[in-house]
Hints:
This protein is mainly beta. The protein contains six helices and 42 strands.
Amino acid sequence: MKSTSATRVFNFLFAALLAAAVQPAPAAAQTGAGAPPATASGSITGRVVGDGGESLAQVAVFAVSRARGGAARTASTDEEGNFVIPDLSPGVYAVYASAPGYYGEANAAGDNSAVRPGDTVLIRLLKGGVITGTVTDALGETVVSMPVRAYRVRALAEGGAPQGVTSASPTGGLLSQTDDRGVYRLYGLPSGVYVVAAGVRGFGPYSPFEGDSPTYYPSSTRDTAAEVPVRAGQETAGIDIRHREERGHRVSGTVEFPADLRGQNVGVGVTLVHTATGAVISNSFVSLPDPERAFQIDGVADGDYEVRAVLSVPDGLTRTSEAHRVAVMGADVTGIRLALAPLATLSGVLAVEAPLASLRQSELCRANAPSPRLLAQEVVVTAWHDEGRDEGRDEGRAGARAGEAAGGRDEGARRPAMFSRASTAPDEGGGFALRNLAAGRYRLRVRPVDESLYVRSIQMPAPAAVPQPRTPAPRAGAGQPASRVGAGQPAPRVGADQPARTAPAPAPAAAQRDSVMLRKGQQLSGVVVRVAYGAALLGGHLAPAEGAERRDGAAAVAQPQRGRVYLVPAEPERAEDPLSYAEVASSEDGSFVFKNVAPGRYLLAVRPASTAPPESPEPPAFWSAEGRAALRREAGAARLAFDLQPCQRLTGAAVPFPPQQ
């Protein structure tokens, strides 16, 4: 039997770091008269149900404020599945439920990510799937206390067919351990495609297989692992693993802490990630008081990895190192140096404009939006990395290329880069700060929770002035006539009191007015977002196009359709304004709805729905000039025009689908 080795593993949860809160900046916002006092409290009520709509009792429900420093409250469902979370301050809350063996439905989780006090929500939990099997050694003997982990690599399409897209769900996997019979059982798994590994690092007693590299089902390396489809509520048995008992290698190095953290009792998590799939292979932990500040990760199989150090401290500002590429090829990798540095922050103010009395008293607004709350803190602001025009290093595309190289699988193509998004709700005065962002180009997505509000404008900070080197005055002599030194003016004196000249900031290009470039660790302020009253709503459904045929050649019949519908401005002056565009995915029955729409004239375009699962969204097609031009061509050909008035609720739009080529 192999000797037991001491472990320094600390399972550092990246999900908590990615959700690091943001610190709002003080600012003022204009709100309408008659808005309720910001100190008023309210309750969020709702019900938790299972797959078939049955009530789920004694389920924990959480309401977490989207704003920095906001409340986090819990409740429990009664026998009918109902719950009440009282005494919540005005703001936006994410509401979710947790029960052993269940996971939250993706659509429900999305709908309940922006809830206000006074709202009622429905949370649907699905019974998770199960993977179970036995782990044996090379002689066929069962192995006791062997850690086993399942990694979700793709979602399942409707009908159970695997999709060629990586899920953005936590890649650390679900961990179990074999019992005295060598049997493991992983339960509560979301529907998807998994790979299962034995011998991974985890909690629990020390394992005699601590230094071995993981063995993937059935008895493989990661590159040749067999995939296991898992469906909600079903058990997949017989996933037996024969442990290869191959000694792994060591990845080690040191972490360099910033000077401002010296003397603090903090620690940093170091995580090793499989480059092609994004799966977290193992973790280590380094304490600042440790004079060596060294980390080591044992049992690493041959392959390509990324190792990164991440530190989250009480001030809410995460420090992280660059992702260090590691190629393990038959030997240990030592001497890695990971230098922690702060991430960037983008801050500004959101103003809710006071509506004109004539607008509030109009027939449509009195009927459809009579009592708007007009609160800045009930708006969600998100910074989204625009990798399509990133001037810096794009880790997401690098991961995609690595994924394509790994047997042609597209497992990394849609995996978002770390620290590429940040979200918050403004404070009472409208101030917000989007923190912990990696370097790159960013856009803002602004989502008012109140359906009577729409985004009027987003003003990004102007490009920073570029310091120019000092230019000494021409020196008379050496062939330089004195008359050329200033054309009759005294020569400028260059010295300690002569500041460096600054070139005026160039006017932002049209394609860059809605985005901003953040440098490493930059603290950039000056964003101004204006939200106005009088939003319209447009809803409808996808209808089979005339003469459309099914894949088998038969005539199409009325049936649910899946598509992505685009709202396209009809006015030429708004053609290049991304705020005038919107997109939504149709539901299972083919219905769709656009909310928080600015009044104006629009066209509709529709495309087949992407195969991407809901948890890994792509950047909108209208973020690029080429994408906007293509949508205008498609919408012009479809000839579906709508003139939306302030506060109008227009439903029943029929959109032919699939669209004619």
